[in-house]
Structure formats: C-alpha cells, structure tokens
Design a protein that fits this description.
Blueprint (H helix, E strand, L loop, with lengths): L1 E4 H4 E5 L16 E5 L2 E6 L8 E5 L7 E4 L3 E3 L3 E6 L6 H8 L18 H5 L2 E4 L2 H41 L11 E2 L2 E2 L3 E4 L4 E6 L11 E4 L4 E2 L2 E2 L5 E3 L14 E4 L9 E3 L7 E3 L3 E6 L5 H10 L1 H5 L13 H5 L2 E4 L2 H41 L5
Parallel strand pairs: 3-7, 14-20
Antiparallel strand pairs: 1-9, 2-8, 3-4, 5-6, 5-8, 10-11, 12-22, 13-21, 14-17, 15-16, 18-19, 18-21
C-alpha cells in the first residue's frame, strides 16, 4: 500500500447554482441534484456527465456522496474528478467516508471545506485490483440497501395511491351502487381531525443531555412522510404521559420555513420518546382507524405548509389549523379493508428498514478493516 495525498489523486470542482429542480424524479427529470448534505432533487440536465463523488463544501455538516450517473452539484458542494488512472472511483468514495471533512473548517462564519486542506490529506493506496475488490464487497451491501429502499418507496406509494383512490376520488369498492348525499357517499360521516383526535398539542422545550435516557424528535427527523431518529437527540426533562409519542401519532412540523407542514406518522415503539415544541402531535381517538387518520393528514401536507402565519423566520402553524382539517369517516367495513392493507404495507416497510440498518452496520464495520488491510481481499 503506497501513501499518496488526495491532491495527487483527484480535483475538487466547484458546483454551480441551479435555477430550479423538483423533489421527485420523473421521466423528464432524470438528473439527480446534490448539495452539501447529499441528494436534494431532480433536474433536466447535468452539470457533469460521468459518475462522481460529491464533497460537501459549506455547512455545519458536510457529507460525502456517490453519484453513479449524470448529476448536478449545486454551489454548496464540490464534485470530484480523478487525476490518476490507477484509482477506482468507487473505492475512493468508500475511502473518503473515513476522512472527517467536517474537521476541515476554514474558520469562517459558515463552516466550509477548503480544497487545500482536502488535498493535503494523505491516505494509503492499495493496488488497482485490490481497490476493485474492496469496492465490490462494499457495493454489494449498498446495492442491497438501495433495492430495499426502492421497495420501501413502492410500498409507501401503493398505500398512498389506494388512499387517494378510495377516499379522495371516492372510487372505493362498490362505489357505483352508493348514492351521494350532501356531497359525500351515503353512510359516510363528515367530521374534522380535531373531533377524530384524543390529543393535539405541541411538544416540549427539551433539556438536552447526551447521557440522558429520553429521546426528543425534532423537525429534521420528519422528511418524505417518514420519521427518522437519526437526527433525534437525548434529553432529560420529565415528560407528561400525553406528550410521549405513541404508535399511530401523526407528527406535523409547525415552526419556520422550509420544513413547515411536513407530516409523518409515528409507527415505531421507542420508550420515553417525545417531540420538541416545534412539532405538533395529533393522536387519533380509539375508534378512529389509525392508518386512515395518518394518510389523511399526510395528504394535506401542501395545505398545511401554506398555513403558517408570522414573520419569515418565526412562521408558526397553529394546532387549531391541524384540528380544523376536514375528515371523512367511511363505513366500518371499508375502513377495515384499508387498515388491513395499510398495516401490512407498514409492517413490510418496517422490516425492510430494519434490514437496511443491519446491512449498513455490517458495511460500516467492514469498511475500516478493508481499507486498513486488516481484512485481506
């Protein structure tokens, strides 16, 4: 294994600001857009045509990400090009995961990665064949994780589409034989989220303590209609039982711009877990179908995002807005049919998510051992 500085192996190229991109991929939007923390959307044309590594340039947390095809890197990040034909790009990506670029702080008001600091880092470089073998082993884990991630997306999409078909377009089983009365199918009930809830409230102002047993979910944890505890923190303040999140609770981001209105249903079991005061907890009543309740509020995400009130940096979403959302309660049998499908889907998603966590843990254990030569290939 020969030593080499990163500046001898690659060049960091500045990204460019993008005039606009969408959150979801489409046939007309085949190019993934990256920022300092990774993928942020999709666009019509690339900045760089080849596979590359994206290195975070600005921000408190700056990541390392891999793009397997044409991509656009915005101006908060770099994209990497190789200078040495004897370097495998995928191997270098995995090797850079062990380089803490967040310690490369320029000292400016906005933490940033300076190219000269990056270029000065020295690493051990094995033979090209060893690089290919290491990258192949680690990629096998990432390929499985990606396949599971796609399955998760398809399962979640299927549940959302069924909800929309039955409860928005009202094309539920047997709808052809049901009369519409006062704008709703006969036998259905008009109500509100507030009337269908046993509890709606903001969370707590936590006392952060890395050694504490309590967990507090913040707005960063709610994205793509999922709850992730990756950004959750430990806290020690005593929490009243009502404000400990329960299976089926719907969490709504309720402060500030950018994340305001994001919705996710909590479908986990975490002891002593709460949310901070920037999130609203909405809890379904005992006789209300849990998944129907969650999908309904999630379907109103765009509306909720538009209902913030206040100054730009202090925009607030009132819990009364959440409570006032209209809700249609279908007949018991139809609700049971949807609950059965949605629960099965959620269980599969949870299993796949757990598989991905185990795969990622195994990959992360192998990574330093393979790179150091402790494990031979």
């Amino acid at each position: 294994m020969k030593p080499a500085r990163l500046g001898e192996l690659c060049t960091l190229n500045y990204g460019r600001a993008h005039c606009g991109y969408e959150q979801e991929p489409q046939e007309t939007l085949p190019v993934e857009v990256f920022g300092t923390n990774g993928p942020i959307g999709w666009a019509t044309r690339p900045l760089y045509e080849q596979p590359t590594i994206i290195i975070g340039r600005k921000g408190a947390y700056r990541g390392v990400h891999y793009s397997s095809g044409p991509s656009w890197t915005i101006d908060t990040a770099y994209y990497l090009t190789l200078l040495d034909d004897d370097i495998d790009l995928k191997w270098l990506y995995y090797r850079l995961l062990l380089v803490d670029i967040n310690r490369m702080d320029s000292g400016s008001a906005i933490p940033s990665t300076k190219r000269e600091d990056f270029y000065s880092v020295s690493i051990g470089v094995p033979s090209f064949q060893e690089q290919k073998c290491i990258a192949s082993i680690l990629s096998a884990y990432d390929d499985l994780i990606e396949n599971n991630r796609r399955r998760i997306q398809l399962l979640e999409q299927a549940a959302r589409l069924l909800y929309k078909e039955w409860f928005v377009h009202l094309r539920f089983p047997g709808h052809e034989h049901v009369k519409i009365k006062d704008g709703v199918p006969e036998g259905w009930e008009k109500t509100t989220v507030g009337d269908a809830s046993s509890f709606i409230s903001r969370g707590i102002t936590p006392t952060y303590d890395d050694e504490a047993l309590g967990t507090v979910i913040n707005q960063k944890c709610i994205r793509d209609q999922r709850v992730s505890t990756n950004f959750a923190r430990r806290q020690s303040k005593e929490v009243t039982p009502n404000k400990l999140v329960r299976y089926g609770d719907v969490l709504v981001n309720s402060t500030g711009q950018g994340t305001l209105g994001r919705v996710a249903q909590f479908l986990d079991a975490i002891e002593n877990c709460t949310v901070d005061s920037h999130i609203t907890i909405a809890r379904p009543d005992e006789d209300v179908p849990v998944f129907l309740y969650g999908h309904h509020i999630a379907s109103m995400e765009d509306y909720l995002a538009s209902m913030g009130r206040g100054a730009t940096n202090q925009t607030e979403l009132s819990k009364d807005v959440v409570a006032g959302l209209p809700l249609l309660k279908p007949p018991h049998l139809l609700a049971e049919q949807f609950e059965s499908f949605a629960k099965d889907t959620a269980d599969q998603v949870r299993n796949l998510t757990q598989q991905n966590a185990m795969l990622a843990k195994a990959r992360d254990l192998l990574l330093p051992r393979l790179m150091s030569g402790v494990l031979a290939v």
